[in-house]
Amino acid sequence: MGTEFLFDLYNRYYPDVNSLRFRNTITCCKGTEITTYAPQEEWNFIARWFGEKFIRGDEDIWNELDRYIEDPKERLFRMINKINKTNIQELDDIGLGLLLIDFHYTVLTVIYKINLVQIEHALSYAIDSMCKKYFSNEQERCIAIASLLYSEESTIGVSEEKDFLELILNCMKNNSNSVYDVIKKHHDKYKYVHSAYGANAYTHNYYIKRYNRLSEKGCEEIEKKLTELNEKTNSMIIEKNTYLEKIQDNKILLKNIEFSRRVGVLRDKNKALLGKTTEIRENILKEISNRKNIPMKILNYYFLSELCDLLSDNKVLKKSIIGERKRGLVLYRKEFFTTKTDEAYKELIYDRKMKSDNISGVCASSGRVFGVVKIIKSSKDINKINRGEIMVAHGTDFDLINAMQIAGGIITEEGGILSHAAVISRELRIPCLIGVENITKLLKDGMHVELNADRGTIKIKNNKNGKIIFLRHFKPNIDKNKPVAEWELDEEGQRAMDNMIKSNKLKSIDKIFTSPEPKARITADIIGKKYNIPVVDCHEISEVDRSKAGFIEEDYIEIVKSYLTNSPEFRYEWENIDNVKRRIRKFIKRINAEKNTIFVISHGMFLSILLHRYFSENIINFWKDLKFGQILEVDKNRLIEMWKNDRIY
User: Fold this and answer.
1) Regarding the domain with residue range 358-460, which homologous superfamily does it belong to in the CATH classification?
2) Contact 388, 638 (CB under 8 A)
3) Under a CB-based contact definition with an 8 Å cutoff, are residues 142 and 366 in contact?
4) Are 367 and 616 in contact (CB under 8 A)?
5) Residue 55 pLDDT exceeds 90
6) CATH number of 467-644, picked from 3.40.50.1010, 3.40.109.10, 3.40.50.1240, 2.30.30.100
7) What is the pTM of this model?
């Protein structure tokens, strides 16, 4: 039924606004992955001819679009209130079927009276055409348009994050005893933010765990995160205003940009509202499941008409039909076809081959980043992306917000300049390319790429020799009578090391660089001997030298915080942090010539100074979160580039 809803959504149009629409569409479903397409010729036709109305400043289009954007959606809210007051268990089967039909089409008609992608596409064409007068260079024009379309109104996802951080801050500063109740209110307000197209709503327990995890970082770090979010907003406003000054003479262009921003905000609000309706739909389906003794996971493969037939005539779908739909499902609308269009559709079904290491798309948010690719096809894939990695998806909806918020960059096959990926990436100030055809098949998990949104390009790096695997040594035996640099592993550290070596995870490495300190060197020697891998002593990656200060029994965490932040209050005779950075640069030069995968065993503070910016983390948080025996995989080219310029792009 969810696939059917998306198929119907894609085919929506409202002639008072967009009389031009897609005539032929196809929706493909495989597992939880759903993609919808229309022929490129139809996209081009809508862009050119619908876009021309915006270029000419068509007042009727503006007025109708304004009415649609400002629609209070009273009909839907009346229905929601009515259903909330109805005991659906008391409805007969026909009444339950009628309720499902009414709710399905009311949601579709009120929230998605129009398929906004057609309006976005036409506006994008119009704005790009009109901006050529002011920005003749294509790269500059892409960056300018991305900045001009930035909306000062936060998206629902970022609003939720800010509200949650402020909630934690208030509770911690006021020593609140009502944390549970405060979190419950937040949960009730935002629980459907991630479930626009049917993903499960987040539970109250999710927010409690999130509160506990974030509160451990302390008020200072939470305030810093809030400041960073606000600073991103302020810098985008300044950048946007700079470009606005250059087009002030063109009232039609300014009006179209204003409508583009409003449509982007509307899309975000529509998806949030759609998420709230999923609870009602799920409750109706649960009631059908209970009455007909059919599991919910099976009912999800029924179409709307089949659910009604089940209610009225007890028509149960055969297991063979359910099995076929589990393997894959294609819905299509045919109004007219040409042979060329038929061939275009065939390409959607079969994988296309990569023809070049350089791929191009449309800039939705400017910037350049090197990173590891993670293909995110559904909310089930969110946990596999790490901070700073490049998220690659068909499209991005509310259920993928958590992945977007930690990604170093975003690439999507679908979506326009006002798509969810585009709006979120501008808000978070991370590079984003949209409309990159077949990218989820061209790229694979673990590939190393350069995403240059300013130029609209994705460059695939040498993925055979661009990897470094870092390991923080295992747990040492703390011996007050020995210098720290001479500590060895304790029993727990030995066991953890043995378990890692037995797992055979390190077969693919070609060379080991190790700190000469025993707590690192012992692991390197055992791995090197087992797999016949050369081991290189590397003094440049030793831990921060603390030998002159001796063993410190005071609050070690606070002392390390003071050191890593280069605080003027730091009073111990430790190695100067600038000298550590000089050692890092020597190490970077040393590994630059390495052609294969290398394994590096080092220490907590050293690795924090080396890697925290690579993962876009605050250095204190990175150090506190870096566990003994933790493995971190990075793109060598990106790390070298970062330290060569002493900054991340």
Assistant:
1) Phosphohistidine domain (3.50.30.10)
2) no
3) yes
4) no
5) yes
6) 3.40.50.1240
7) 0.68
